[in-house]
Design brief:
six-stranded mixed beta sheet, 249 residues, two-stranded antiparallel sheet, single chain, 5 helices, alpha/beta
Length: 249
Amino acid sequence: MHSSNSEHEDKPLSLVERLKQFNRKERYWLLRNAIGETGADLQLSKSFRESLYAKIGVTVPVSAWWAMDYHIDWLFSALVLDRLRPQLKEPLLNYENSENPEKPPRRLIQGTQEDFDLIIAFDRTLILIEAKGATNWGNAQMKRKCERLHDWANVSRKITPHSTYQPIDIFMVLTSPAESQRLERQTWPDIIKVEKGSPYFLPLSLGGAANSFRVTERCDEGGTRCSTGAYWKVESRSYSRGQHKGGQS
């Protein structure tokens, strides 16, 4: 890993500045251009910040930085650099998480586009948010995100931090119109803050959306779904506008 910008800065970079260096997701920059905010970070709304405070008990400042679809590889890269400074040398060892002898070890940086839907960062606090609207939560996807956070927890214990390093509070939050009762409970690493063993849940408003969404499906001439269909049809896909309904099962 070689960067055109020297990492041996006269002024150490903050956590947010580290995260910003990796944020090259086009959707984020397109959004900023589309709403005419190209010269400054976009601010989270007061109501959203207050909703987060009500759930996690931490005040999210108006200056909090955020990014969309932030790759997990980017996140871990920023966290490693934040932990190593100022004794950074390149190339960096791509650590393996080998804590489970029954499974093959996983590298920390995997070269995939796996991401968190929204990340929020300020001071030494990081909030990771996964969202679902009309689609359902998937146990396999959530298990995978949990495994990758276990990778970071395991690897971070192997990296000796610099002398002035301060720990980062990392919160895991799920948001959707109604809380899923089908998600399997995962064992989250102890460095990730959750609520009673499950991610914090934040209701997601779909105010202004259609009463039901339309879904395009391929089918045969008789209307039967098939992946090689020479026809297609439109189906309705309902979603719940309900609020928080207790813990996950």
